[in-house]
Write a structure and sequence with these properties.
By secondary structure, the protein is α/β, with parallel strands linked by helices. It has helices at 3-10, 18-24, 47-62, 83-93, 121-133, 144-157, 175-183, 233-243, 259-269, 304-309, 313-324, 328-334, 359-371, 375-389, 391-399, 401-408, 425-431, 452-466, 473-486, 494-499, 508-520, 528-545; strands at 34-37, 66-69, 101-102, 108-109, 137-140, 189-192, 201-206, 210-215, 222-225, 230-231, 248-252, 275-279, 282-286, 289-292, 355-356, 490-491, 506-507. The longest helix is centred in the last third of the chain and has 18 residues, at 528-545.
């Protein structure tokens, strides 16, 4: 029996050849940049995945290229229910709409599919069949128990772990011997018959990490499992990226060790390799240490975290871009209103040592962004977020939409707007006291003046002698100053107070704080005059009298 006959025995129903598929999946227009996000649905999307998505998207869109989604579901035993749907949700939420994709049992867009690996079985088999026929791959009948023994012995002997050389027990079976086992119904895998020499090195250029000298692969890598009729990641990666005409593969640094295997696979078929960008690890500061962000330890590692907190999509993308390219922040300062896809992304500007993701920086980006929105935009975002995450607050803000928008507009439309909110979940904690339905203070942050009798005396004098709801802001503040001067031991002259603070019990700022706390229970709020205008006299009197 020849290797070609063995290939026909193993894959009798596969009649299409590699040449047939080359015609079916033609080269894309010359110069087209093609990137892909190719997740395995074995878990839910995390910040490292999202980092890759952002890079994929900006590299493709910057050049009017193609960004496609591929579902790498070959490891079906580990597939997590709902993971695929969540991937699609995240892409949709952040408006990273793939140019090509496929929804299982549903919509397909693009002519280079199927975009779900489990639906590409016959394509992979055609490529595997070719390797078997050419004697470049072989069926391996080693059991898991046999491989475990080999691994254990290798570990004891302190030699490289893997099936190579003398450890590749099925490598030298004749086609007849292999055929007998197959006919007998023995389970097998297909392994690449590696021609590499681990003692030799080859040069590999990674766009993010530069040129590297790497050891050749000599492992007879498993590329197909007869039990599932599916290829392994390594082989599917080769076939799919070649036929889909991927030009740039952006993936995490953890895949660096796979480069020798992928290099040999592409070389075996004579295919041109895509350009590779191995993105840095996502790091975080933990006390005095910097460590890899952890899906187990860090809630911000999960992409669900950012939606649950209510971070604007703009802020999350911006935060990723600032760690993806070292010159992005300078570019953004010069192009404040430009879409991030206008930025000339360069893999060379990535930090091979790791990308430090800082939640404080995300908060700052988000606060700046939200501060520039109109009251209508803020309300729309808040309304959408609370519908899903805080139905009670959603009902409150919709009870009087104009009133809510007026609250959200305090100190907004001015040269230096307030920056109170980093995410939509911050809003309720910042403005709850403006709603009668929510105003039930548990404590009062009186601060410097904390004698309740003195506080009541100040407030009684203010309400009865100095408060006028028709005052403009200047008149309102003048009345607060007059109140201060009427109090024994207080001054409205801040300069005099700062020069001799021991001469006074307090100043006009302290008196303003008493009014502020009486109405809100907080000593830090937006503009008190605007708050009082919105609360109105009846509510102001009610709150003061309730003390």
């Amino acid at each position: 029996m020849t290797t070609k006959e063995l290939a026909d025995l193993m894959f009798p129903d596969i009649t299409k050849t590699i040449e047939d598929y080359e015609k079916e999946y033609p080269e894309r227009p010359e110069g087209t940049v093609v990137t892909r996000y190719a997740p395995s649905p074995t878990g839910f999307m995390h910040i490292g995945n999202f980092y890759s998505v952002v890079c994929d998207y900006v590299i493709a869109k910057r050049s009017n290229g193609v960004f496609f989604l591929r579902n790498e579901d070959t490891d079906q035993a580990r597939e997590v229910e709902g993971a695929v749907e969540y991937i699609m949700h995240v892409l949709d939420h952040y408006e990273f709409h793939p140019d090509e994709y496929e929804i299982k049992g549903g919509e397909t867009k693009g002519s280079y599919g199927p975009y779900i690996q489990s639906e590409r079985k016959d394509i992979y088999k055609a490529f595997i069949k070719y390797l078997i026929a050419e004697g470049k791959a072989y069926p391996c009948f080693m059991t898991q128990e046999e491989m475990d023994v080999i691994r254990e012995n290798q570990s004891k002997a302190k030699v490289r772990i893997g099936i190579y050389g003398k450890f590749a027990k099925s490598r030298n079976l004749t086609p007849d011997e292999a055929a007998e086992k197959i006919k007998a119904g023995e389970q097998y895998t297909v392994r690449l018959k590696s021609e590499g020499n681990f003692n030799n090195k080859f040069k590999f250029n990674d766009l993010a990490n530069g040129e590297m000298d790497l050891h050749e692969n000599d492992i007879d890598t498993i590329i197909y499992k007869s039990s599932t009729e599916l290829p392994t990641y390594h082989f599917a990666h080769l076939v799919d990226d070649h036929l889909m005409r991927t030009t740039h593969v952006i993936r995490g640094q953890e895949w660096m060790s796979s480069i020798p295997t992928h290099y040999e696979l592409f070389k075996t078929f004579g295919f041109k390799m895509p350009k590779y960008v191995h993105t840095p690890l996502i790091l975080k500061k933990d006390g005095d240490k910097i460590r890899k962000i952890s899906k187990r330890l860090d809630p911000e590692a999960r992409m669900t975290y950012y939606e649950e907190k209510g971070y604007p999509i703009y802020a999350v993308i911006e935060a990723i871009m600032t760690i993806a390219n070292s010159n992005y922040e300078a570019w953004r300062e010069g192009h404040p209103d430009a879409p991030f896809t206008d930025f000339e992304f360069s893999a060379k500007k990535m930090s091979p040592s790791g990308a430090l993701f800082d939640l404080d920086k995300l908060d700052n980006i988000s606060k700046n962004y939200i501060s520039r929105l109109t009251k209508d935009q803020v309300f729309d975002f808040l309304n959408t977020w609370t519908k899903e995450y805080d139905e009670e607050f959603n009902a409150v803000i919709n009870k009087d939409v104009d009133y809510t928008k007026a609250i959200l507009n305090i100190e907004r439309e001015q040269k230096k707007p307030r920056k109170d909110y980093s995410c939509w979940s911050d809003v309720k904690n910042s403005i709850w006291y403006m709603y009668n339905d929510l105003y039930k203070p548990e404590s009062y942050a009186w601060g410097k003046i904390n004698d309740l009798n003195e506080i009541k005396d100040i407030l009684d004098k203010y309400i009865n002698n100095f408060y006028n709801e028709s005052d403009d802001k200047e008149a309102w503040f003048n009345h607060v100053k007059e109140l201060t001067e009427s109090l024994d031991g207080y001054t409205s002259d801040m300069k005099a107070y700062k020069e001799n603070p021991d001469n006074y019990k307090g100043n006009v700022a302290d008196v303003s704080t008493v009014i502020r706390v009486a109405l809100t229970s907080k000593d830090q709020t937006p503009d008190l005059y605007e708050i009082m205008k919105l609360l109105g006299k009846e509510e102001i009197v009610k709150r003061i009298n309730s003390l």
